[in-house]
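Researcher: Next sequence.
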Amino acid sequence: MTGPRQPQWFHFGPWVFSIDAAEALIATTPRDTRSLDVMTWATAYGLTRLDEPHRINLIGPTSTGLNRTYAMTTNLTKPLIVAHLDVTGHPPSPLLIDGTHRLYRAWREHVPRLPAYLLTAEETRQIQDTTLLGPGRTSIAPPA
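Model: Next structure:
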C-alpha cells in the first residue's frame, strides 16, 4: 500500500510553484501543447553536461540531483510544463517547472521534441506559493 500521493512542488530560488495547481489550471483551461526543442532546453538546463566533473549548473539539477534511473522510466508523451516568470522591467522569462526527468530521457534517447504546456505570467502567479517571499509578494522586486 502506497498511501496518498504527496503534493508536487518546484523550487527555483525564492520561488515555489505548485505542480498540482498547474495541472488543475491546465485541466480547467485546456490549451494546445507547444513543441519544445529538446537539445536547446537540455543544454540550457545543463543536462548535457551532468556527467562532466567539476561542472556547476546555474539552472537545472546538479550532477547528483537528477535520478537518471527514474528518468529513463518516465512517460515522454506527458507534456512538460513551462511557466513564465514576471521579472520587473523585463519580458516574462520561461522556466521549466515540470518535466526535467522527461527532458533528460528525451535528450539521452535523441528524441528531438517534446510536448509542453505553456503558462502565462498571470497563470504562473496563480500557481506560485508566496510563503517564502512574504505576504502580498509576487516577485523578487522590492515592494513599491
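Model: The two ends are 50 Å apart (CA to CA). Residues 9-129 form one domain.
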